[in-house]
Amino acid sequence: MKITVDVWRQSGPDSSGAFDTYQVNDATVEMSLLELLDRLNDQLVESGNEPIAFDSDCREGICGSCGITVDDVPHGPVANTPTCRQHLRSFSDGDRIKLEPFRSAAFPVVRDLVVDRSALDRVLEAGGYVSVNAGTAPDADSQPLSHQSAEAALDFAACIGCGACVAACPNGAAHLFTGSKLTHLSLVTQGRNERGKRARAMSHQMEADFGPCSTYGECAEVCPAEIPLTAIAAVNKESMRFGLRRKDN
């Protein structure tokens, strides 16, 4: 299987980048896109050239580090699937594939296909945690939680923080990511004490680094965890809840 690859090459954050074209003649349909990059890097190293920098870790669709843009689509042609689980069976022999980093002002390019996604970390640092009293572990049934709430919390906690939602949004919004964290922590009993403060802190940090929601729903189409669009509504819902409760007090 012969694949032509146009890859974004950029030596550093302050340098200008451009696409370079390469050809892999021994690709197979079983290869993932990351394995295609591995094979291409083997060729580059063997010929004495600089390999392509890209992020990867677990390669099992869990860690969220592998995200790149494939033919203008974050992660690739298969919806709700991370880059490491996108395979060449989605392409044909002789196809040309364009690979570039996630495009967003909040994700500056570090090198080639690697971007700095610490803006997402700052949102989590602002309120993506719970504070509990240290000491003896509480009894298992001292903080009852319904099965329905527990399952819903797990669904929203599935977000892997890959940033594809930001890259897919024309405005570079992070509402799907932030809303998934706010919803998850509002459903579990340990997160309710700081619910209002969390909503305010995370929303303010999100607005400082990311754009407004475009309301088109591109984010949900590329999310590997299939976080629903209801997470976006949670951002305003949780912020309004905090404001109303503060007025009541």
UniProtKB/TrEMBL annotation:
Keywords: 2Fe-2S, 3Fe-4S, 4Fe-4S, Iron, Iron-sulfur, Metal-binding, Oxidoreductase, Tricarboxylic acid cycle
Name the record gives this protein: succinate dehydrogenase
Keyword check for Metal-binding: yes
Entry superkingdom: Bacteria
Biological process terms in GO annotation: respiratory electron transport chain; tricarboxylic acid cycle
EC number per UniProt: 1.3.5.1
GO molecular function, a single term: 4 iron, 4 sulfur cluster binding
Signal peptide boundaries: none
NCBIfam families in the record: dhsB, PRK07570.1
Entry's family note: Belongs to the succinate dehydrogenase/fumarate reductase iron-sulfur protein family.
Domain 4Fe-4S ferredoxin-type: 150-179
Cofactor(s) it depends on: [3Fe-4S] cluster; [4Fe-4S] cluster; [2Fe-2S] cluster
